[in-house]
Amino acid sequence: MTGSTAYRGSMHFTCGYGYNLVGAKTISCQADVTWGGRVPTCKATCRAGYQLIAQTCIRVGLEEKDYEDAQADCEREGATLAMPKTKELDVALRNVIVNKYGKDSKYWIGLKESGSWLWADGSSLDDHDHHYQGWNPGEPASGIKAWFESSDCVQYWSGPTDTPMWDDTACGYNLRYICQES
Ligand SMILES: [Ca+2]
Fold first, then answer.
1. Residues 56 and 128 both lie in one domain
2. pLDDT digits (tens, 9 = 90+) for 80-118
3. Can you list the disulfide-bonded cysteine pairs (predicted)?
4. 4-17, pLDDT tens digit by residue?
5. Number of folded domains in the chain?
6. Are residues 66 and 21 part of one domain?
7. Which of 10, 52, 132, 151 could join 28 via S-S bond, C-beta 3.0 to 4.6 A?
C-alpha cells in the first residue's frame, strides 16, 4: 500500500506473489476521513488443486511415479517439481506433508544432480555462498551408487531426523511428489 491518507490523497494497493487484488487498485481519502471506496482485498490465485504455502502454490501428488514422470506430471499443469530454496518454504512443505500424510512416505522435490545440483528451473544449488540446503545429516551420500545406476534425484525422506529432509536417491524409484506452480 502506497500513497497519502491526506484529504484528496489516494492510496494504491498491490498484493504479494500468489494473490490477486479484488476491488479498486486506487481509492481516495474523503474530507470526512473515510475512504472514497471499498478497501480492496487480496485473494490467493493458486490454480485448482494447488494450495498457497509460504507464498508458493503447491500440490502434493499421491500417485507414485519415478522422478521424470513426476516432473512431467507437474509440467502438464504449468508447474515443476517443488523447489524449497528457502528454509521458510522447506519447513512449510515438511509441515504440510507430516500434518496431512504422516512422516513415513517419500516425496520427490525438483532437485537433481547433473554435474552439479540443479533445481527444476535450471538454477544451481550452489549459486551463492549462503544458500540454504535442507539435507538430512550425512546426505548427499553416494554409497548407494554401487548398487544402482544413479543416485542423482532428491527426495524428502524422514531419515535419522524423523523429519522430511533432503536425500539423494535413485531417480527410478516410484515415489509421491510435490509440484510447485512456476
Ligand atoms: Ca542418499
1. yes
2. 999 999 999 999 999 999 999 999 999 999 999 988 899
3. 15-42
4. 777 777 888 887 76
5. 2
6. no
7. 10
